[in-house]
Here is the input.
Amino acid sequence: MALLSRSSGGIARSNCIRKLARFSPTPAVTDLVRTFVYDATSTPLLKTPLYDLHLAHGASMHPFAGFSMPITYETQSIVESNKWVRTQAGLFDVSHMVQHTFTGKDVTAFLERITPTDVRELAPYTGVYSMFLNSQGGIVDDIIITKHAEDKYYIVTNAACRAGDLAFLEEQKKIHGLIDIQHDILEEWGLLALQGPRAAEALQRLTDFDLTQLKFGNVGLMPVKDSKYWVSRSGYTGEDGFEISVPKEETLGFAERLLGESNSVVKLAGLGVRDALRLEAGLCLYGHDLDETTTPIQASLSWVVGKRRRVDGGFNGYEVISDELKNGTTRRRVGFVSDGPPAREGSKIYDETGMKLIGAVTSGLPSPSVGRNIAMGYVERVFMKRDTNVLFDIRSRKRPGTVAKMPFVPTKYYR
Here is the structure.
């Protein structure tokens, strides 16, 4: 795929080259895994604190955003792992993600310039899904913002976008003249995601912290033995679950305790099943379903634009986004279901006559939970209505599909 460049400032994002790959010759993986791969021809791959644990559990390791990451494990197929996370709990190593802290008197104003979130009114110890925006309202990266205090925030960004995001942040500080901001990257911290209906049960065994206090989006400082870890009730699967930030030297021990004390409940899960789970939940993958030419409104994510921000503006791309909120967009992200060969990323979408090209698929795979092919993509606005019949161009043959409601699998967030 082509190298993406920033439309605001023209900053090239050399480490965000998107390469489409299928990570295993097995049918299950070639059917389900489509993801970014880091070009590591001259740069050694980094390892997360759980690298040796993955190998010990028979992980198939592959390059991902500069890291050697587990895609599958020999004890479970992707379909089996999908079922396990939907019924028990899966432990995902997401230590490759970039964890940031921002402090200083200008930090709230800065975040309100570069995101559409109502950061000012965000309650302390609350996290929300958001995005960095360029001057045209395009999505530079999708992120999670957590407010710890009026002058302190914790943000998680995508690993593949690290260099581009850092350049963007420096550029934006200069553009907006906001200088009282201390920005640090938590290089010495691991990040684990525990996801599934029994995640709370498993995690509660390791702490006296009452996890029922944490609703979806809430964050707390959780004591575990002689340490305290930041834990947020969130995730990327549509299930109840947690993301836990752990000092690097304690990450392995914490993961082993989770697995050892809950071995009938918790199993390691790789990036292959993570991709299937997030698509079933209707969640976007940056670089596939979102990019710098796409606005939140086109992506059917208008809810990320805070009510106050819609009136007051003051953020990158406000004029474009305000117009789209009022007048609509020429294209929108929608979901699809189909049978037969699955529609993959890049498949062209036609109207039901097969004569008019109306869009393209951005993510697609056979869903273990739904039992049918699912996909998402962008179509012209007049074709976005549910139950609209379409045709996918799959290997030069047009195959029928239908616009469907997302998420494909109901979410089970703890609210």
